[in-house]
Amino acid sequence: MVQMACSLDPNENMAKAEWRIREAAGRGAQVICLQELFRTQYFCQEENAELFALAETIPGPTTTRLGALASELKVVIIASLFERRAPGLYHNTAVVIGAEGEILGMYRKMHIPDDPLYYEKFYFTPGDLGFPSFDTPFGRISALVCWDQWYPEAARAAALRGATVIFYPTAIGWHPSEKATHGAAQLEAWRTIQRSHAVANGVYVAVANRTGYEGTPERGIEFWGSSFIAGPFGQVIAEAPTDQEAVLVAECDIHEIDRVRRNWPFFRDRRIDAYFPLMERWLG
Asked: Is 239 a catalytic residue?
């Protein structure tokens, strides 16, 4: 997991990400995940049509650079990008780049928030690729994005497609005016819901969040970092600080998933014949 603070200069952020990827690979990482929209500051704090200029195609310049780096280091890279799919059609997309530099696939963010300072519905069309998983030389993985991490359905769908690790590129933090009153509870809820996905599905969960303050002094977000990797029992096996950049490297033993699922057979006991109400918006 690469946890970074971002500047206003996309080139500077790209260079930092490349340096951090090299650091992670040097420490033995095989799958390296960057935070949500790592090339820029979190621009969704405002609705500004000029910011669509930050988007790029996939394949495009960033996937080309990261592909060359993945091939050189023989690692898999998960990169969250502002995708320009067509004129007027944009997505928040996680690209999975293979160890030979090829694009293994991509995931378009399905759940799009619209909250104060998180005006993503202005920029992003909801994804249309479902919840895919991707075979890599190091295991089968899924990549969801930020707001997706609050939805058990998304994690379950990824696990049912064979993912052993679910990655969440993320950009989440405190509204400074709320931090003193609600900050601790918000952070703990964020950790808890994602650890619960690990437990309920018997998978590893890996979250890469950004850190640092972005926005004006009067109106901005203090990103809370705290990137972490949790095992299939929900145990946190690596965690970053809230207020510093960090590279987290942890070993995920894929055989542990089989051992956990033998003792906690949630998949065996699922009542798939009874879950049709989940397809309804509301049942009241």
From this structure: no
Query: Among residues 6, 16, 33, 36, which one is catalytic?
Result: 36
Is 36 one of the annotated active-site residues of the chain? yes
CATH of the domain at 157: 3.60.110.10
Evaluate the omega torsion of the peptide bond into residue 61 and state whether it is cis, within 30 degrees of 0: no
Q: Is 109 a catalytic residue?
A: yes
Beta bridge partners of 217: none
Across the range 222-226, mean pLDDT stands at: 98
Whether this prediction's pTM lies above 0.70 is answered by yes
- The one catalytic residue in 33, 146, 214, 252 is 146
Among residues 16, 15, 21, 28, the alpha carbon closest in space to that of 1 is found at 21
pLDDT digits (tens, 9 = 90+) for 25-57: 999 999 999 999 999 999 999 999 999 999 999
Question: Structural domain of residue 15, as residue ranges?
Answer: 2-279
Q: How far apart are CA 14 and CA 222, in angstroms?
A: 21
Q: What is the pLDDT of residues 88-124, one digit of tens each?
A: 999 999 999 999 999 999 999 999 999 999 999 999 9
Q: What's the total number of domains in the chain?
A: 1
- 49: CB partners within 8 A, 6+ apart: none
Backbone angles phi, psi at 77, to 5 degrees: -120, 130
